[in-house]
Amino acid sequence: MRSISLAILALASSAAFASAQEFDINENQLRDVYPGEAYSPYAGRTFPERPLWGDTHLHTGQSMDAGGFGARLTQEQAWRFARGEEITASSGQPVRLSRPLDWLVITEHSDGMGLITDILDAIPGVTKFEQGRRWAEGYRAGGQEAVEATLDLITTFSQGAVEPDLFKQYQPGARRYASIWSDNVKTADAFNDPGKFTALIGFEWTSLVKGNNLHRNVIFRDDAERAGQVVPFTMTPPFGSPDPLDLYKWMQTYEERTNGAVLALAHNGNLSNGIMFPVEAQYTGKAIDKNYVEQRAKWEPLYEITQIKGDGEAHPFLSPNDEFADYYNWDVGNLDVSVAKTNDMLAGEYAREALKNGMLLEEKFGTNPYKFGFSGATDSHTGLATFEEDNFFGKHTGYEPSAERLAHPFMKNENGELFAWQMVASGITGVWARENTRESIFDAMQRKEVYATTGPRMMVRLFGGWDFDDTDMSTRNPAIIGYRKGVPMGGDLMPKPDASSAPNFMVFALRDPIGANLDRIQIVKGWVDADGNTQEKVFDVAWSDGREPGANGKLPAVGNTVDVANASWTNSIGASELATIWTDPEFDPGQRAFYYARVLEIPTPPWYLYDAFRYGIAIPDGAPTSQQERAYTSPIWYTPAS
After folding, report:
1. Residue 80: CA count within 13 A, CB half-sphere
2. Tens of pLDDT along 417-427?
3. What stretch of H or E contains 118?
């Protein structure tokens, strides 16, 4: 079915009632189609009414790598910026968001918390060690010496070669470490304003296995009173571990000790060189077993599908029939590009493949470890949660706006190169929470009623059911029907006794009010076939007017209005809203399946076009001059009754 406007049930014109006509009631007007419990459709509502926008992944100058590369913003400044205040960036430039965020998680690296601050201050507890003195002197010298000091610090840490007596001051068990964490949770409490702005407490557990990324962000439901009873888990022995199973044990202990609640979400599987989503064996070589799948399913309800270091939905090698799978794939190597990427690694790196393999593991162990929803985040190391193309402040302070930031690669060695323009101004999470509080937002994350976008604040809803029909879209409040007759994104579609019917999905999207029009809505389906093999297919289900699929079933491109020279575009193509009821035409009631929606905008300029326009510089060779930003809803799963 093609797109159905949300406005198809307009009220009759008042002019129709101007004449003295008798109003005849007919059978159709008496149909029981109004879904409300009372005349007021807003009375008695208990479901979420709007998405709350936030970032699950931000670093300030307190994190070792952020501070080392020049970030000087504090947590207080990061909170102020997120809630809409204008501040001065570390590079000295004024900066402000176009619209405030509703919530934020500041996720400083748990290892070495506070070390970089004390190096910069050259405190005696640091400079009495040769390494600390060397780094402090490098930073004070500035320029290239400061850059070399940062690279030396990060390399020394990643190799586990920081002087033990120096480093233990910044690990769990040390007074300095405990005091920093205590300050952080109290600061979050100070900025938490229920109903207006939510400051969630969190940290990043930065597991790195020979340069392969296994990072997780840990988010608390709780306030400083509970979260302050522990200190973060690290990846460095003897106080921590790089094994996710040990992180889960720490999380279990936290909940038992405090009666609190905590969750984790992984990110950048695309930089793990195949170990983020294992199917046969964990990175340790131990076989995937029942304990692994159960623990991962319990503690990781979300996956960070898009962020500055690449989009993690799909890859053209894995999804050759998906024309939109090639979206900012960082596929050169692992996190530090110490090992080059090979195609055999990709299946363990991307979300769609993990969703498919999770169903296979569920058939084997009874639990799906990759039954996650989708979040988006910036992973900015500037203290600035910037995700808009025209307001992008880079990965770290060295890539904050300047005429030179496109002139040198982001990373380059003998294994490959990542260009500065390949940084992605992404992303953001929309949470369907009932109210703007820690508890409500956390609970929405836990039930996976969230979705990710690459930056735009488009409103997207997805419901799955068995009995939706076109009449259900004849309202400006289709969510009332969605919750009544189906399940929202992140939910499970229960089997229907009538095996002859197929599930249908209600999906609708509104463009960002200050953003670009919409190109199309797609439903991505994955399933396990009768032979036990995973399959996938992308369906175009709603699109802007003026196009029809060709003989090959492919929908023509929406067009492109990007003005490259002026870094602009027009909304003369596309649609402001799209909606439809879609029924799976290939449904098999005996096959496991998942469904999620992907919403594409019309082409718009990437962030570096704004740089070219504002600084009068050339666009880098090979850099695309337009992109189609997108949203990903959390999936809905179907499991056969057997």
Report:
1. 11
2. 899 999 999 99
3. helix 115-120
